Amino acid sequence: MTQPDPARRRVEPPNSARRRALIQSGALVLLLTTHHIARGAGIVAVRIWPAEDYSRVTIESDTALKTTHRMIGTPPRLAVDIEGLELNPTLRELVAKVRADDPNIAGIRVGQNAPGVVRLVLDLKQDIKPQVFTLTPVAAYQHRLVFDLYPAHPPDPLEQLIAERMKDLGGPAGAAPVASAQGMPKDATDSLGDLIAKQIERANQITRRGDTTVARAPSPPPRRPVPEQTPAAGEQSTSRPAPPRPAHARGSTDRLIIVALDPGHGGEDPGAIGPGGTHEKQVVLQIALKLRDRINNTTVGGSPMRAFLTRDGDFFVPLGTRVEKARRVGADLFISLHADAFMREDARGASVYALSDRGASSAAARWLANKENDADRIGGVNLGVKDSLVQRAMLDMSTTAQIKDSLVLGDAVLREIGGVGRLHKRNVERAGFAVLKAPDIPSVLVETAFISNPEEERKLRSESYQNDLANALINGIQKYFAANPPLARNRQV
Q: What is the value of pTM for the model shown?
């Protein structure tokens, strides 16, 4: 076998050395680029959504981020280390985004803790149960790192409703009801009306609103005195007692009537966006707040009404949580407010929907339900949390009675809305909307108009049109209760 000549082995083509150098340098550049990408994920945006329910901090990036976090004691702080990240001006914007009225976050500090590791320290105003999770790209969002900061001791919504009612009646501002929405004593038999009556008796403020009809422009309803208590022995009554009202007479109740209002979308989920840039989440919240004022100034059969909002600000609420909230306060009705959208700008008019357990009433209703049910993916639900109440609420627990009552409510609301604007559908449509699946609460979803239509977008932004819609909705609610008075019942959990 002939051995190669060593001298000839060392002979290379003229460009060989240069080519090898370029290949080696290219490999080095590739390694450096890979290393840079691993340590320098691009930050797209940072956002903070403050709310009493919880505050959310979102960091959106072009690649997924890995984190470790821990709570630190007094004062409460949340320390988060984010790997694969270098400190940059976008991250520093978090510091200035904290609002003074944020009920949960006092401030945020950001620093480079180590090469490729950024540390966030969230100074908290109260004890927090944090949830830290990531979301994969969906809709207009890329990768999201989310911090949801839930108060360790959240306010009880039912107590808040009763406290507001007590304030209206002149009772003590800090009066606390004897029961909680999270769990009344097992042997308790008091209704909400009884609870309020006890608080009124303690404050010696025996006053109740009488029947009223909401006009086109809301005004405080007239009041009439409640019959005096039977005087004790030896005492003289200073006023002639009114004749007793039958507790279960048609059109009368003996408790606080609660209407749950559900402004759709919110926070990370803007809902539909009109051609003029109007966000669905904004206009439906404005309408809900106007409707809340009208409900709170209305009575049914002599019993006061009180509105409960699933969200009263710009923050995201999962669909199942919306249902759970309404059930926790023992709502008598559930009304979800939305603004429709379609690919064609000429689509217009309002619609009302109820739940269906046998498929959608039309292809359009099915499409809309699928779109609205997708809100959880866009808004960002922590799939790692298995809340039993929320999970149960999301089950298809619909009942025939609930659907029947929902259709009656929907028809009453639809007729009133038709008096202030054009209807897209003249009958109540039905589909499998997740947010309507409370098994014991008549529930409807109202599409107030087509925000994708430039003319209707302008109407939805108009305060006069919002007032007209709110008036139509309260009139529909009143007509529903006139024909279907809420029965006296115990509100036990």
A: 0.76
